[in-house]
Amino acid sequence: MNRSKVLFAIQEQEKNFKHFFHAIDKLKPHLPINKTDLNNDTIVEHIDQLIFRFTKAQDGIGKRLIPIITEVL
After folding, report:
1. Which pLDDT band, with edges at 50, 70 and 90, does 69 fall under?
2. Per-residue DSSP letters for 20-47?
3. Which site from 33, 40, 41, 64 is most exposed, i.e. has the minimal number of CB atoms within 10 Å?
4. CA 1 to chain centre
5. Domain housing 65
C-alpha cells in the first residue's frame, strides 16, 4: 500500500471539512434560515458552499478513503 495515497486521501477530506465548517460558521448568525434569507446572495453562497463541500467530502470518503482503508485492512 502506498502511504502517500492514504495521506493524500485524508488531506483531501480535511480540506473539504475545513471549508465545510467555515461555511457553517458563516451561517450561524442566520440560523434558523427562513424564506427571506434565501433572497440574500451572501447567505445563499454560504449554503451553496456548505452543500458543495459536504458532497465533495461524501464522494471522497466513499470513492477514495473507504477503498484505501479496506485495502489496508
Report:
1. confident
2. HHHHHHHHGGGPSP-GGGGG-HHHHHHH
3. 41
4. 26
5. 3-36+44-72
